[in-house]
Amino acid sequence: MSFQTILFACTDGVATITLNRPERLNALTNTMFRELGKALDRVAADPGLRAVLLTGAGRGFCAGADLAGDGIDADADLDDALVTLYNPTVLRLQTFERPIVCAVNGVAAGAGCNLALACDIVVAGRAASFMQAFARIGLIPDAGGTFLLPRLVGRARAMGLAMLAEGLPAETAAEWGLIWRCVEDDALMAEAGALAAKLAKGPTRAYALIKQAMAASLDNGLEEQLGVEARLQGEAGRSADYAEGVAAFLEKRPARFQGR
Predict the structure, then answer these.
(1) By the 8 A CB rule, do 184 and 134 touch?
(2) pLDDT surpasses 90 at 189
């Protein structure tokens, strides 16, 4: 399968998807969204691909929607593009049954920022920055921004990020809990790759259930969430990975998980 706007490579159970329009700071286009969906379809169909690493080519992760090409038409009804392309992609990332690590190099702005935040674990280089750039052109945060931001950093910081539309340095993003970790730029891909490789060798069925449980907790009360935990834990307890994990613990050896 060949792509025009992304790169797709597989190594040791990790599928690396690279946004590949570096001349436009990987600005998002309709074609890119469709190809990202096809790449995720490919991962979902291959049991040997057990984790995803998402990053961007060149000097930035993603500058947001491309307003000058095959992206959002400034004269069109913007909700159409969100409903047909942006929203399904964010939902897919949040519910994807493989763990997704995002390596943010350089700027992550607008929808590009929220695309990164929709991933499970975000690692950024020290020179990276996160910007809710929407207000600069008279828009509101989309691609899940108004959902993710207050839950990640609280209402006060979310409002500041959304209304002031200023770049947030990666180090501060890590301090605020917006992302998992900030690392030196020259160590970014090695660090993110190592995390993805570790996850690919782990109990990926349990990871999928963890994602479900965390998502449910955002709207549940304690009693409801305890019920969710019981239901999902029962499912995890019936998995082959749980049996292998217990056997490995008792036998004092590394577990050999297979995602079943």
Answers:
(1) no
(2) yes
